[in-house]
Amino acid sequence: KVFQGICRVSPLAIRKEEEMIKLWAHECIKVFHDRLVNQQDRDCFMKILKFTMKKHFGKEWENVVQVEPLIFGSFVPCIYPEDDKTKDPLKNLYCELMDRQQLNCLLYTSPSPRDQRGPRMPSSA
């Protein structure tokens, strides 16, 4: 499952080594950490993840991850062609969502999928 998530990404979204490492960490968290049922196990997992990042990639978590928690998605356009913000952002790229203000604005102002379907008809009991 970790590698399935990594394979979803376009090379347009991962341009630096650190971005690939963050993607790997995000997918590990999504697949393993999110299924753990208590804080002690989640803390232990994060220690193992950070140790593994240092051992295999030679990078410290604190030097790679600037915004926590790591969130990746394809529903917020945040990659610009040639990094030129005067151009329209590329759509549907699975990438790190670092701009939490933009993410919060989208999540709290967009109608939910249920709202887009229209009101539910009352069921007859």
What distinguishing features does this structure have?
globular, two-stranded antiparallel sheet, about 5% strand, mainly alpha
Strand-residue proportion: under 5%
| Helix content percent band | 40-55%
Question: So how many helices?
Answer: 6
Rg over CA atoms:
18 Å
Main beta sheet strand tally, sense and closure: 2 strands, antiparallel
Secondary structure: number of strands: 2
Order of helices and strands: HHHHEEHH
The poorly predicted ranges are: none
Distance between the termini: 42 Å
Going across the major beta sheet, what is the strand order?
1-2
Give the overall pLDDT as a whole number: 85
Backbone shape: globular
Structural class: mainly alpha
What is the strand and helix layout of this fold?
Blueprint: H1 2-7, H2 17-31, H3 39-57, H4 61-64, E1 72-73, E2 95-96, H5 100-109, H6 113-117
Antiparallel strand pairs: 1-2
Helix pairs in contact: 2-3
Written overview of the protein:
The chain has 125 residues and is mainly alpha-helical. It has six helices and two strands. It has helices at residues 2-7, 17-31, 39-57, 61-64, 100-109, 113-117; strands at 72-73, 95-96. Strands 1-2 form a two-stranded antiparallel sheet. α2 packs antiparallel against α3. The radius of gyration is 18 Å and the shape is globular.
Summarize this entry quickly.
The protein is mainly α. The chain contains 6 helices and 2 strands.
